[in-house]
Amino acid sequence: MNKTLPKVHQIGYEPERDRLTWDGWDIHCGQSMDVLLPDQLGGGTWRTVSFECNDGSWYIPNYPDISPVGLWAKEIDR
């Protein structure tokens, strides 16, 4: 049985609409995705996170120092 691999794309940002995007889709507040977060070894670890917007700034709860823009993300594999 072949398993289809999830799509992996970078998270973008459209300033004119103040919206995060992924593969042509809008990311909404509270939406969850798997993202490749930097780790201490200079690589990355896939983690499920959600995205929030506060005072015109997008952020990831529990990771306030990491911008979601430019991170690699994939659909949550369920």
Question: What does this molecule look like?
Answer:
This protein is globular. The mean pLDDT is 89. A hairpin with a 5-residue loop joins strand 5 and strand 6. A four-stranded antiparallel beta sheet has the order 1-9-5-6, with no helix packed on it. The chain has a three-stranded antiparallel beta sheet with strand order 2-3-4, with no helix packed on it. The protein has no helices and nine strands. With 78 residues, it is mainly β. It is 0% helix and 46% strand.
The averaged pLDDT comes out at 89
Strand content bin = over 45%
By DSSP, the count of extended strands is 9
What level of helicity do the residues show?
A: under 10%
The sequence of SSEs as H and E is: EEEEEEEEE
Overall geometry:
globular
Task: Give a short account of the largest sheet.
Answer: 4 strands, antiparallel
Strand arrangement across the biggest beta sheet? 1-9-5-6
What gyration radius follows from the Cα positions, in whole Å? 13 Å
Outline the low-pLDDT stretches: none
Helices, by number, come to 0
**Terminal-residue CA separation:** 17 Å
Structural class: mainly beta
In short, what is this structure?
The chain contains no helices and nine strands.
